[in-house]
Amino acid sequence: MADPVQSKPLHVMFTALPPRYDMINHVITLGMDRDWRNAAARTCLESRPNRILDLACGTGDLIVTIARTAKHNAELFGLDYSEPMLNIAQAKAKQLKQHDITFMYGDASKLPFPDGYFDCVGISFAFRNLTYQNPLTPTVLTEVYRVLVSGGRFVIVESSQPKSTIIRFFFRMYLRCFVYPVGRLLSSNKGAYRYLVESAARFYTPEQVKDLLVNAGFRKVTYRPLFFGAAGIHVAVK
Ligand SMILES: C[S@@+](CC[C@H](N)C(=O)[O-])C[C@H]1O[C@@H](n2cnc3c(N)ncnc32)[C@H](O)[C@@H]1O
Q1: Lower CB count within 10 Å: N or C terminus of the chain?
Q2: Among protein residues, the one whose CA lies closest to atom 23 of ligand 1
Q3: Whether residue 225 has pLDDT greater than 70
Q4: CB 36 less than 6 A from any atom of ligand 1
Q5: Domain containing 136 — which CATH number?
């Protein structure tokens, strides 16, 4: 029987991307993706969580950054449905001296963890994939809520919509005139970077993300813009 995960359209794309994925991310964000993940890692660690999941971890940069930043012992997990991405993540984690990270193949809409297992679920640049025009959005958010302990935190770093009309105009120009041609050239994957640019250009405002989270049961939802609102960090508490 076909694996239901592998029949999902984005799965094909994320299985094809990996070899140059990290390098292209650094180029198209002018290196800022590292700073944004660092900020998300610090936010995840603020509450000294004992068990942390990097959801849709890709090549593992968020959870590896958490491992490098953590000043306490925490159990660290990364989950993704792209095996090539997970292979790269595993290779990075092997170079860590202090922390072990458990990487798992799995689908965000059916998390292989018991209720209340994590004190923190972090997600970097994958919330848009899981929620924008995705019919499984309510299921994914219900799953994140389920695997968090009461009082646990969901930390999201994602592209966003700048509040100012002028900045939003330049942000969309940058997406279409820089990110798309550069991503297409470096990856030879036109479809993936068209999807990235169009979903980022039309993605939800911080207020709409807050509504999604509140409707899923989260409370105390906060938002911190990064780089004039081109990206931002949302925190939601179970
Ligand atoms: C844009 S990448 C972000 C990867 C990584 N978090 C980062 O910061 O670079 C999106 C990731 O989400 C994963 N993904 C998308 N939908 C998923 C799902 N339903 N279940 C698990 N992983 C998923 C993809 O395989 C991909 O690795």
Answers
A1: N
A2: 56
A3: yes
A4: no
A5: 3.40.50.150
Confirm whether 43 is domain-assigned. yes
Q: Sorting pLDDT into bands at 50, 70 and 90, what band is 17?
A: low
Residue 128 maps to a domain? yes
Domain count, the chain: 1
Average pLDDT, the chain: 93
The answer to whether 84 and 20 are in contact (CB under 8 A) is: no
Cβ of 189 less than 6 Å from ligand 1? no
Tell me whether residue 18 is in a domain: yes
Is residue 172 assigned to a domain? no
Q: 13: which residues sit within 8 A by CB, 6+ positions away?
A: 189, 191, 192, 195
Domain that holds residue 93: 5-162+204-237
How far is 97 from 100, CA to CA, in rounded Å?
8
